[in-house]
Amino acid sequence: MSGHDPRDLVVVALSGVQRFITESRTTVDLRSASQIVAHLATEAVRHLHNTHKARIVFPSLSEGRVRGTDDGMPNRVVALVPAGQGPTAASATAERLTGVWEGWVTEVFDQPMHATPGWPVVQWVSVPAAVGPYPVQWHEAQRSLAERKTVRDFAQPWDEPEELCTLSPRWRSAPPPAVVEQHMKHMANEKLAVANWVKRLWHRKTRTGRSSGFASTNALASSPYRAEVLRLWEVDPDIGDAVGDLQLCAEELGDDPIGERPLEHLPRVADSEEADWVRGRGSRWVFPASWHLDALAREFKRDRADAAFARTVRDGWEAARRLAKVMARHGVDPLSPHLAVLVQDLDSMGRHLSGRRTHPDREPLEVGEKSHTDISRLLSGVAAGQRAAITAAGGVVVYAGGDDLLALVPAAAALEAARACQETIPPALPTASTGLLFFHHDSSLSQALGRARDLLDLAKERPGKHALGVGFVRHSGAHGHCVLPWSADPAPDESLRVFLPRGEHARIRLSPGLLGDLAAEAAHLDGGDAELRVRDQDVLPPPVARAEIRRLVLRHTALGPGAEGRSVEADRALLEGFARHAATHLEHLSPAGRLVDEDAVRIALFLRQEAS
């Protein structure tokens, strides 16, 4: 900062963002919440830049323009305003954001509504130019923000005897907006607070949020399968016949209230209504489990005892099963009902921006306006790279701000997407940790988001951070998780594919029965879990234990068809080589001091069964 242009440092932050975003029942809620936050942050930047002549430090500007909200915006804006104007600029910006939000509420409800305490909460600090140069101002701002977090506003909330909001029970629900009663009756019984009605209807009712929607969990989970259906459409006429029957059955159920935005990466088939249908609205009907009589009777308000309705449901189920059999003839993997939530966050970003070391191999940052502006540009580039990686994996980005990421990805591509997003982080930034949760497309999205965040927290609790927390939750409630370092060699995503041999081992089939034997022998192999360890149990010396693991792997491996003409000796050598390879990966999946981690093996088995 030049001494000839002294400026106040202003930081404006939106509080409660993570909670607001994760309290989402549908992917539309999720995307709307993210875009609401991004648009509020964008408005803060524009107001400071255009009205108060601020120099914006975070986020980066491109030729004086705010980058698009689709790229993700941080929930904190850092700016330098002319000396003496900091408090006025910051206060006016906070008022501006509150006014923008109230405008959206009015658009959704066609009238002003009561406030929802706790959203939006705009916090700000201003450090005068007289305090000193930029580094001194920055440290003072961080101290003030930390103190500000301990202060709570206790405004008297509006209240009346309404039921609690089912998404955010800290608020009372509000009657549905008129548009719900008129055009969206399937939502009429929802018990949502004002803020969550805005979230639900933001794309439909506000001028700012007009959009064509966001892919559902059904669409994302089924997208790899539907891509193969469309790719083979003109190869096998049985595919079109099965899809045509599916479409007829789905339309006979009645008006489907669930709209669907086709994913752009799915192949297009010219002049085929049925292909267009499976590319878009057919996303959930390709799952045989979607054809459940009781569930569909409730959803479409039909009598389950109606013979015609029951026959339609049965025919739909049979059409979905027939399509799966046709696809199996072409070697297409069975349809997985799972997808993944991917969250990533830079480790100790606050420490890095304050000039403190965050990693032994990375130099601390020299705090200054230029260095912070450079970091802001780097984060913008990372966000663009992450968006490209998620799109290439067939997923969709909820937000990508560079320092943090939230995306939904098909199960089969989730590990590759997590690795690709890691590779977007340049050495000039701190390392990043990742949470990756696989969940059933019909499960609670809000719970999946919460569990993914928990996995990210576990990854960050690991010494040195820079870890991958990965887990799954089946529809039955069965679950598992483990935490692995990204710095491992081989990488954790590679080791987790131990039950999915590739390359020279592609013919090999490793049986899930291995897990049972490893669990039974755990106490002998490495002492087992410390909390369950039996003191008088004999533990094999590590070289002997490793040999026993190789024997167990070999016991549970078999060769699939192919490579005719190979000798028995060659096949035996291939199996023994794979046993050594698998035992090494199993050890890499285990915490220090152990050779086998049963939770990690469960994750690997899940990936084989549901994300192949």
Report on the architecture of this protein:
The protein has 612 residues and is α+β, with helices and mostly antiparallel strands. The chain is built from 20 helices and 14 strands. It has helices at residues 17-22, 27-51, 86-109, 134-148, 178-183, 194-205, 217-231, 237-253, 273-279, 293-299, 307-329, 349-353, 369-392, 414-422, 445-461, 492-495, 513-526, 542-555, 568-588, 598-610, and strands at 7-15, 55-58, 61-62, 65-66, 76-82, 121-127, 338-346, 396-400, 404-410, 432-440, 467-473, 479-485, 508-510, 557-559. Strands 8-9-7-10-11-12 form a six-stranded mixed sheet. Helix 2 (27-51) packs across helix 6. It starts with 6 loop residues before the first strand and ends with a helix. The mean pLDDT is 89.
The major β-sheet equals: 6 strands, mixed
Count of extended strands: 14
> Span between N and C termini?
54 Å
Strand order of the largest sheet: 8-9-7-10-11-12
How much of the polypeptide forms β-strand, as a percent range?
Answer: 5-15%
The residue fraction in helices comes out at 40-55%
Overall body shape = globular
User: Which stretches are low in confidence, meaning pLDDT under 50 for 5 or more residues running?
Assistant: none
**Rg, Å, rounded:** 27 Å
SS class: alpha+beta
Helical segment count = 20
pLDDT average, as an integer?
89
